[in-house]
Design goal:
By secondary structure, this protein is an alpha+beta fold. The protein has 5 domains: 61 residues, no CATH class; 168 residues, Rossmann fold; 98 residues, Beta Barrel (Elongation Factor Tu (Ef-tu), domain 3), CATH 2.40.30.10; 105 residues, Translation initiation factor IF- 2, domain 3 (Rossmann fold, 3-Layer(aba) Sandwich); 97 residues, Elongation Factor Tu (Ef-tu), domain 3 (Beta Barrel). It is built from 15 helices and 34 strands.
């Protein structure tokens, strides 16, 4: 007889599957010394199988489907039943990636016909935004304005997964940079096609051929050379060549990628950003990838859920619904979702709550699992640990979720054998009194990224000598953190020999001990100088000069060619012919190699 049972398995559940009373199963477990179990006690798979075998039943254990698994199966089933005639063309979603100052923000700025680029801190886009552009003929393109800063690797990586085409902006007068290569790798890892925009064609130093040769080294072969990568010479500042770029992107969406969507289905898509706004609460920036989103729908995103209270489009206009490829900002969630999280519309609050709870449980389990690494387990088992590290605690506050995740990601890469950072707390919004209290107890440095610090909070921190560092540009934050790490590294010690002194006579004193009558052979002998006593080529003492005299008078130093009297600190076994080697030790500040 074979019986199927789903995890988790309890005594009561097993008894029901075996069609026995729970007390019978409990008694059998005790008799066979499997243990004493209550009705709702969890049984591992092996114990359950063994207990079932006592009744000649073969137990087949299956993993129970989560509420999210069930929902996804239903969603996929519903989507597969949609007729092709019900589908419509979907506007392509593009991400504009590129090295800082290569013109990424200027290109997005030109496309939107606004002037936001001049107001960006440090000329770098700080947040991931999404904008919809209407081209000639009414056709649209959705642009994800992923941060072009090399530090926002986490956002860029997730952004590449949410798009149909990556537009890689490379300055024709500068060429490929490390962050350009990084963007290429992210796009390739996501399987996203790349279109290259060779920017600054209006500059005298523009050299398209040179940049193309560099790009070919990354297997981006232009169409004119027999490859499949479209490349356009543009001026993002003047708009030269941009219309041709847009036309190609629209054509790619229609012909090459065949992008379709079901406008009447339940909405699904990706979270682009999340923040807490005064008076509005949690605001989630979403990209609808399929279906339609409407006010009143039950939204599930990350660990948050709730009924949608309001929807705004990319220019801040309140709307009632949004279709495929539309970027929107919505309110109504009870928890901040993460950048890159998938969102769904579900049919009940109860289902949304159940799935959100499952996600929260899984995320907590991952955090706990990551807190003890295999290396730590091994070291604990062997009863030893590696070199003791200096841990620098941080409390990080940022304006939006995307910035926070990017900072976490970059800080996680600042690891050294001797020193590393630990983020003891982080969150979206300004620094709070609770942050200051935690900072005091954990001796942490508080980081405020693009958020304010109230006067009361600042005074409380100053009273406890607690550092609060404010930043608007992540380059400055990371540079400061590297400086802090370097300051915590033990300095390198560099030794320099400063002279040699020969002992020629020994005088004995009941009060002082051995006084060495010496001649300075080279260099200089200084009072309190560090020394080595050499005898027959071997070091017999290392210490300091305790007393230095010249003609019976105390001397600060004695130079080459002069006689002197020396008493070594805590050492009197000196002999004629010994050589005293004087040296100094300099502390050299170490540089990070990460």
């Amino acid at each position: 007889l074979s019986v199927v049972i789903e995890t988790p398995i309890t005594v009561a559940k097993l008894a029901e599957a075996l069609k026995l009373k729970s007390s019978v199963v409990q008694k059998m477990a005790m008799e066979k010394q499997y243990g004493m179990f209550t009705l709702n006690a969890s049984l591992d798979e092996d114990t359950a199988v063994l207990l079932a075998s006592e009744y000649e039943v073969e137990l087949e254990v299956r993993e129970a489907k989560s509420a999210e698994d069930v929902h996804l199966e239903e969603f996929i089933q519903q989507r597969s039943e949609v007729e092709d005639s019900e589908l419509v063309d979907r506007a392509p979603t593009i991400a504009v990636l590129g090295h800082v100052d290569h013109g990424k923000t200027t290109l997005v700025d030109y496309l939107r016909s606004t002037k936001i680029a001049d107001g960006e801190a440090g000329g770098i886009t700080q947040h991931m935004g999404a904008y919809q552009i209407t081209a000639e003929g009414g056709k649209k393109i959705t642009v994800l304005d992923t941060p072009g800063h090399a530090a926002f690797t986490a956002m860029r990586a997730r952004g590449a997964k949410a798009v149909d085409v990556v537009v890689l902006v490379v300055a024709g007068d500068d060429g490929v940079k490390p962050s350009t290569e990084e963007a290429i790798n992210h796009a390739k890892a996501a399987g996203t096609p790349i279109v290259v925009a060779l920017n600054k064609c209006d500059k005298p130093a523009f050299n398209a051929n040179q940049v193309i040769q560099q790009l070919m080294g990354f297997e981006l072969i232009p169409e004119q050379y027999g490859g499949n990568t479209a490349m356009f010479e543009i001026s993002a500042l003047k708009g030269t060549g941009v219309d041709e770029l847009i036309s190609h992107l629209i054509l790619m969406g229609e012909a090459e990628l065949g992008l379709k969507a079901h406008p009447k289905g339940s909405a699904s898509g990706v979270v682009l950003e999340a923040e807490i706004q005064t008076g509005r609460g949690i605001v989630a920036h979403l990209l609808v990838q399929d279906g339609s989103l409407a006010k009143g729908d039950i939204l599930l995103a990350g660990e948050g859920y709730g009924r949608i209270k309001s929807i705004q489009d990319d220019v801040g206009k309140t709307i009632k619904s949004a279709g495929p490829a539309t970027p929107v900002a919505v309110t109504g969630l009870d928890a901040l979702p993460g950048v890159g999280d998938t969102f769904y519309i579900v049919d009940s609050l109860a289902k949304a709550k159940e799935i959100a709870g499952e996600r929260a449980y899984e995320n907590r389990a991952k955090v706990l699992a990551a807190s003890t690494t295999p290396r730590q387990d091994l070291e604990a088992m062997l009863g030893r640990s590696g070199p003791e590290k200096t841990i620098i605690n941080l409390i990080v506050r940022a304006d939006v979720q995307g910035s926070l995740e990017a900072i976490r990601y970059e800080v996680s890469k600042l690891v050294h054998d001797e020193v590393e950072f630990k983020i003891v707390h982080s969150g979206v919004g300004p620094i709070t009194e609770s942050d200051v209290a935690l900072g005091i107890t954990s001796e942490a440095t508080l980081i405020a990224f693009q958020v304010g610090v109230a006067g009361k909070i600042r005074k409380e921190a100053e009273r406890h000598h607690l550092a609060i560092r404010r930043y608007n540009v992540i380059y400055e934050l990371l540079n400061d953190l590297r400086d802090i790490m370097e300051g915590a590294l033990a300095p390198e010690l560099e030794e320099e020999v400063t002279g040699h002194v020969e002992i020629r006579r020994i005088f004995r004193s009941s009060k002082i001990g051995a006084i060495a009558g010496c001649m300075v052979l080279d260099g200089t002998a200084h009072r309190n100088s560090k020394v080595r006593l050499l005898r027959d080529g071997s070091v017999v003492y290392t210490g300091e000069i305790g007393s230095l005299k010249r003609e019976a008078q105390d001397a600060a130093e004695v130079r080459e060619g002069f006689e002197c009297g020396i008493v070594l600190k805590n050492y009197s076994d000196v002999k004629e012919g010994d050589i005293i080697e004087t040296f100094s030790v300099k502390e050299i500040k170490r540089k990070l190699e990460i």
